[in-house]
Design goal:
Helices cover 74% and strands 6% of the residues. By secondary structure, the protein is mainly alpha-helical. α3 packs across α4, α8 runs parallel beside α16 and α11 (274-295) runs antiparallel to α16 (360-418). The longest helix is centred in the C-terminal third of the chain and has 59 residues, at 360-418.
Length: 419
């Protein structure tokens, strides 16, 4: 007979921690059901000895609860997609959502995911539905995802909802990966070139200056400028770096305010390339989110509200909010969005055709597909322009340094010959 430790709830709702002997796990669950206990967690004892009630590996139940609370506070959006994928794998095989969450709370190895599943299972054990349990984890699940799960539970199409959610979140994750990959190369070039310039100004030029000064004579203008830059960096470089760090932190804290976010978002939209990219990103976010919500049975008004919250640029979000109000008053979606002034005409035409033919969701999906490619092309072009621009500036500066040094050597050599 194997030893099993368990955590369960009795008929009064009290939590019971104890152990029992059974031939296997299935038999242990049967014994608990016969005792009128609802199992929360059942594990086979690794030592084969009874485990003291409320203890696991020398830790008290209070300590376990405190550690779990600490982990719950660290949960983030990163756990959302892996959880949906694991849940979908189990529900597709025929298991109920509740039993799938219970199994995940036992089997998962990732501590964050396991903590999430344990928390969900505890709430399911109290009689909550999956969507209700998810509302207790706002750092992981957003409102649109919770409403989609609720719609799937109500219509019995949870698997289909999970499939669409996984596809939607995977596309968003891939877009973020592309953005980070696109910025990695220019960032590397910027760091390396900055290091080279700092080395030349702070270490090479002072030695060159001492050498050229020992030869006597007047330095050419370009060399004087270079030496001046070197001396300025040596004497005031730390102050400039400190001021830049302070300014950057202050700017970031201001951007976190409502007024600062609105102002900086407005500035970003006016920048060449960046503004076009942000418009494309908004169109993609709007078309992806709205199509998923409408396809899964969320009514149009609620879907528009949820989509509005997914738009990151505050200027676009405000414009979309005003368009949503007009749609709720009976105006056509394409016409209301046209008043925002940021959506491209082709997108508005596709939406208008979709509304007239009753195929809004297919039209939104086509827009999303087209703009995924558009954003990918924009990222590639932006990367090349930024990298080439940085390289051009570095080569120009290094060329200026080489020109200054060579001119100084020639001029000082001429002075020595004349002597």
């Amino acid at each position: 007979m194997a030893k099993f430790t368990y955590t369960a709830r009795d008929r009064s709702g009290q939590t019971v921690n104890s152990s029992l002997e059974a031939a296997n796990r299935k038999e242990a669950l049967r014994v608990l059901a016969a005792r009128g206990l609802q199992p929360i967690q059942v594990e086979e004892s690794a030592t084969g000895k009874p485990v003291a009630t409320g203890k696991t590996k020398g830790s008290t139940a209070v300590e376990r609860k405190a550690r779990r609370k600490d982990l719950v506070s660290k949960l983030s959006r990163r756990e959302r997609l892996p959880f949906f994928q694991a849940l979908h794998d189990l529900t597709t095989s025929g298991m109920s959502a509740g039993e799938s969450v219970r199994l995940l709370s036992i089997r998962l190895q990732d501590p964050m995911l396991r903590t999430l599943c344990i928390g969900l299972w505890e709430r399911l054990g109290e009689g909550s539905s999956l969507s209700q349990a998810m509302t207790d984890f706002p750092t992981v699940f957003d409102g649109s995802g919770i409403n989609l799960i609720q719609a799937g539970e109500a219509t019995g199409s949870l698997n289909d909802v999970l499939s669409r959610l996984i596809a939607h979140l995977s596309e968003q994750k891939e877009l973020r990966r592309q953005l980070l990959t696109a910025l990695a190369y220019p960032s590397l070039i910027l760091i390396v070139s900055g290091g080279v310039i700092v080395f030349i100004l702070l270490f090479l030029m002072p030695r060159m200056e001492a050498l050229l000064s020992s030869l006597g004579g007047k330095l050419p203008l370009s060399t004087q400028i270079l030496v001046g830059l070197s001396n300025f960096a040596l004497h005031y470089g730390l102050f400039i770096v400190g001021a830049a760090i302070f300014g950057g932190i202050s700017f970031w804290r201001w951007r976190l305010t409502k007024a600062g976010r609105a102002k900086t978002d407005s500035w970003l939209l006016r920048l060449p390339l960046v503004g076009t990219f942000l418009v494309s990103q908004t169109v993609l976010s709007f078309s992806q989110t709205l199509s998923v919500l409408l396809e899964n049975g969320i009514n149009a008004s609620e879907a528009l509200r949820m989509t509005e919250r997914q738009i990151t640029n505050t200027q676009h979000r405000q414009a979309f909010k005003e368009a949503t109000e007009r749609v709720l008053q009976g105006e056509a979606m394409a016409r209301a969005l046209q008043r925002t002034g940021f959506l491209p005409p082709l997108v508005l035409d596709q939406l208008s055709v979709g509304e007239n033919t009753g195929n809004v969701v297919p039209s939104l999906k086509k827009i999303a597909t087209a703009y995924r490619k558009t954003i990918s092309d924009q990222l590639s072009a932006f990367t090349q322009i930024l990298a080439n621009g940085i390289l051009l500036c570095v080569f120009a500066f290094v060329g200026f340094i080489a020109f200054s040094v060579v001119m100084a050597v020639f001029q000082l050599s001429s002075t020595i010959r004349l002597r």
